[in-house]
Amino acid sequence: MEVPLWKRAVGEFIGLFLFTSIGLMVVATAITTGAATLYGLFDLSIAFGLAIMTIILVVGVVSGAHINPAITIALALYRKFPWREVPVYIAAQISGGIVGSFVLYFLYRGPITAFERTNGIVRGEPGSEITAMIFACFAPNPAIAGALGWGPNVVTTGTALLAEAFATMVLALVVFAVVDERNTFAPSLPVFALILGLVVGFIVAVEAPLTMSGINPARDLGPRIAISFLGWGGVAFGSTVSAPWWVWTVGPILGAIVGGAVWQFLLGSFLIDRPVDPLAAGTEAAELGSPTPGGAPTSAGAAGGTADIAADRGTDRGRWD
Q: Is the pLDDT of residue 16 over 90?
């Protein structure tokens, strides 16, 4: 049964709320307590991956766990996700990012303020990117750039845009592959969550030094809006030592569109439709009725009837198709 749009919007809101509160809390901990002593890049990437996995498990069956405007737009382009629902999803995602960032700041305002005082950082002035990066993305990564003595030209605007687009292309390609009903290796929701968590963790590990691995416009834009009200206004949208803010909005959207196209028109075109007739499918009929990761569960499995399973097939995939 189709989940009403407003309920799915709530799911997307909660997904980004969790991402920007408890997810970015990993960055807050690393910055305010000393990344070199407590965390390494690999540790942070694993923590991010676990956060993504948890969020997908929580909201996947409600909203489909897009939790990313770039993925939502790509699904609308290629997978028949209704365009009329795209603005609602994106608004919910960005709103969740804003509220989650305010919660994160409320919890960590003490350590953040202490870190700034100890290191002579004036919030909103050049140099305060080191604490603003707890919430928003910068290129190059302020913590790594500071440790290695990188200047702002080490990662140019063009490089940052390309890096965000390329990383999101990889993410979108994986998403499209695992939700395609023709893919005989399509996973269950828990395995889907694990796969996406590992993919995000890998991307963070290799791309974070360049752009902090935004790969999600809502994950960056929501927090960026929030910190503009929390004292970082000077660097939130106008940092002089980073690529411009729009890189983390435009880059992921372009990358997701390309990644979706690679699957839709190249790799995905090599696949054939799986049988949907229960008589033709035989013992595979039950598998054909399994919910797509992020789709709404049905009662077909409990009923045990192959005809019901085949009939429910369409609604199971409604969130991604």
A: yes
| Cβ neighbour number for residue 265 with a 10 Å cutoff | 10
**Look-up of token digits 């206004």:** 233
Residues of the chain with CATH 1.20.1080.10: 5-270
Return the HEC string of 193-215: HHHHHHHHHHHHHHHHHHHCCCC
Domain 5-270 is found in CATH 3.10.180.10: no
Distance CA 118, CA 127 (A): 13
Q: How far is CA 284 from CA 90, 164, 177, 188, 277, in A?
A: 37, 40, 20, 15, 10
The model carries a pTM of 0.84
Q: Kindly state the tokens that stand for 112.
A: 């953040």
Mind giving me the DSSP string for 146-196? HHHT--GGGS-HHHHHHHHHHHHHHHHHHHHHHH-TT-TTPPPHHHHHHHH
Q: Identify the three-state secondary structure at position 216.
A: coil
Question: Rounded distance, CA 229 to CA 27, Å?
Answer: 20
Give 166-184 pLDDT, tens digit per residue: 999 999 999 999 988 888 8
Look-up of token digits 């390609």: 173
Query: In angstroms, rounded to a whole number, what is the distance separating the alpha carbons of residues 229 and 11?
Result: 25
Cα separation, 198 vs 208, in Å, equals 15
Of the candidates 264, 157, 164, the one whose C-alpha atom is nearest the C-alpha of residue 208 is 164
Measured distance CA(255)–CA(60) in Å, rounded: 22
Q: What is the pLDDT of residues 210-224, one digit of tens each?
A: 999 999 999 999 999
Helix count and strand count (H, E) for the chain? 17, 0
